[in-house]
Amino acid sequence: MLRYQVLPATLIVFLLTACSSGNQTTPTPAAPVFTSAPVTQAVEASPYTYQVAATGTAVTFSLTSAPTGATFSGNTISWTPTAQQSRVSNSFTVTATASGAASATQSWAVTPSGTIRISRIDTLWNQSGSTNAPFDLSRLNSFVAALVPQPDGSFKAFSGTGGTNGTFEIPNVPAGYYWLKLGPRDTYWTSSSTFDMGSDIFVPVSGATSPTTSTTYINFNFTSLEATAAPGLLQIDAFGTRVPFYSASTNPGSTTFFGGFGIGSNLDFSVIKNGFVRQYEPAAFGSINGYVLGPALTLSNLSLTTGGHNTISGALNPTVPASINLSLKGSAWPPLFDHIAPTAPTAVGGGFYLSVLPYISADGPNVSLSNPIDLIWTKANSSISIFSIFSSPSCSTLPPFFTSLPLTTDVEAGTVQYSDPFPTTWRRIFRVCQSASVAVPAPGGTTQSVTLTNSQTTSLPTATVKPLISPVQNPKINGADLFTAGTINGTAVTLSWEPPAIGTPFGYTVAIMSTTSPLPIGTPPSTLPIGTSPTGTLPIGTVGTIGTVGTVAYFPLTTLGTAKTSMTIPPDLLRSGQTYLFVITSLVDGKANMETSPHRSSLPIANAQLLSAPITIQ
Predict the structure, then answer these.
(1) For the chain, give me the number of helices (H) and strands (E)?
(2) pLDDT at 603 over 60
(3) Do 413 and 372 belong to one domain?
(4) For residues 8-22, average pLDDT
(5) pLDDT band at 497, cuts 50/70/90?
(6) Mean pLDDT of 497-507
């Protein structure tokens, strides 16, 4: 017989609770939820704050990662972006933790707008060494600007101010690429917050000038020349001055030289203390004719009288033996002028030159305006070296009547003997240049010739010399062939190209030439646009004959620099109704950086050019 015991209700409840407690799961605390949106706007040197908020139980915050200088107090982040932190991305992460250790993170980036800092402190070189010279950038206040591209394709201009100490600042420029306009003819595509405009420049002693002009006569009487079977050359340089050098032919078989000249100027010739007399002897480098340096004489402690008659005499010293194993792939240069213009170019000149740069050290920077003195050169048709008349160690774009015949064949001259009496501390360089002329139609039915170059400068070669760079390939304008004359509707113009087949450029320049009425012959140089010649109506880099004053021709307008393979032309450069030419140059340099310091240079340097067809803007 079954018996039942009645238990109290409270005891039953207790037993049920006790039996089920082993299967109960404790709920996980909810993670915090951020209710604040990060502040992503900031300005260099201005306080940045962001108050963090989140829902949850007993939430605490910690700054997990942040840029240097950022602090966190309570729920507030404080930070003042430095110059180095501006215009670059800065990452933040905040962790919110609730009771029970539940957490959540919030991450974001801040890219403060910042100041573009430009400097131009040129390094000036001469026989005494180098000095730094700040440029007065306050003179460019109305020119310098950062042109920032906008989503609609336009550009927003940011201006700034410059100082006499060689610095210029443009504040509040957002991150990213922009056109840095440094003057009416010098603009660069860059994203950098710092930009060095400075250059290394040779500034010779020029002496005092006076308001009056006098004629100074200098006569020469030199002995101990080497007797040569064919005419050679005798040249005289006044080191470190702006006074022109003297050059004349020597007579075959003669060991003496007599000559002289008179020059009218307001220069003080008494500042000329050093000079160098050198005899060039005809030589053959395989099938190419040229000259090598022979006997020479250093002139020291000169005492010249301005406005008077002066005599310089002396015996040339015997040659100081030097040699080079000369091997040059001359046949590799002519193909570089294929597909570089709307019509086939005509080769007009070329040459190679082994030279020394006075007062410039072998391991120093490239110094512009430093006249090289040739030790070997291929100039056979003129007494003036292509490189000597324009003060640059690189090959300039010059009219063909200054050049020798183009290089078309390989040069295997073996060991070439020459004289090198210069200090071993001076730099030796080897230059190669080829130039070609392109005929382009100009508005009004005229034709204008534009000279393009492919050139390079290196230290003395130890192997066969070959091209370092070739022109860009497949150039386009708004997607169309740049070598086909055409019309662009509107002023929104984009140029693009493919990299050169030979070499790796550090960047490219695009020179824009526009049609305008030329200046009268004899216009003072101070009134001429940069890159034009004061002796005529043609810009440097063009050749040919333009008619009377008023004839329409192409003249340099501006130059744009970029490290990219495309560019959108900045606003206000191209105008409706005008016709333009574009010269694209690929550039090699051992030091220059197109986006930060395009003028700080070291060996090797090289360039190669191409020319567009005429493009009209409507």
Answers:
(1) 1, 43
(2) yes
(3) yes
(4) 43
(5) very high
(6) 98
Tell me, yes or no, whether 3 lies in a domain: no
CATH number assigned to the domain comprising residue 232: 2.60.40
The two three-digit tokens of residue 57, written as one number: 């139980």
**HSE-up of residue 495 (Cα within 13 Å, Cβ side):** 27
Residues 125 and 80 occupy one common structural domain:
no
- The residue among 572, 581, 587 whose CA lies nearest residue 612 is 581
Q: How many CA atoms lie within 13 A of 93 on its CB side?
A: 6
Q: How far is CA 152 from CA 89, 148, 149, 418, 496, in A?
A: 24, 12, 8, 63, 20
Contact 521, 537 (CB under 8 A): yes
Q: Which two tokens stand for residue 113?
A: 């707008």
Q: Are 397 and 271 in contact (CB under 8 A)?
A: no
Same domain (yes/no): 258, 353: no
Whether the predicted pLDDT of 608 surpasses 70: yes
Average pLDDT of the chain to the nearest whole number: 84
Q: Looking at the domain assignment, is residue 365 inside a domain? A: yes
- Give the residue from 571, 608, 603 showing the smallest Cα distance to 589: 603
Q: Are residues 295 and 340 in the same domain?
A: no
What are 597's two structure tokens?
A: 């310091």
Residue 2 pLDDT greater than 90, yes or no: no
Residues 232 and 337 in one domain: no
pLDDT value for 406:
79
Whether 454 is in a domain gets the answer yes
Query: Token pair 């002519």 is at which residue?
Result: 334
Q: What is the pTM of this model?
A: 0.84
Residue closest to 353 by CA, chosen among 278, 408, 294, 291: 291
104 with 132, same domain? no
Residue 374 domain flag = yes
Torsion sign (Cα): 341, 344, 347, 348: negative
Residue 595 to residue 561: CA distance in whole angstroms: 8
Please report how many Cα atoms fall inside a 13 Å half-sphere around the Cα of residue 571, on the Cβ side.
Answer: 12
| List of residues 6+ apart from 10 with CB closer than 8 A | none
List the end-to-end C-alpha distance of the chain, in Å, as a whole number: 117
What pLDDT shows up at residue 17? Answer: 43
For residue 250, give its domain range. Answer: 209-319
Domain count, the chain: 4
Answer yes or no: do 458 and 531 share one domain.
yes
Instruction: For tokens 């091209």, name the residue.
Output: 467
The CB density around residue 475, as the number of other CB atoms within 10 Å, is 22
Starting at the edge strand found earlier in the chain, the sheet holding 121-126 runs 129-134, 121-126, 200-202
344 vs 25, 391, 482, 616, CA distance in Å? 87, 30, 14, 21
Instruction: Tell me if 190 sits within 8 A of 237, measured CB to CB.
Output: no
d(CA 373, CA 358): 8
CATH for 55: 2.60.40.10
Owner of token pair 């020029």 = 206
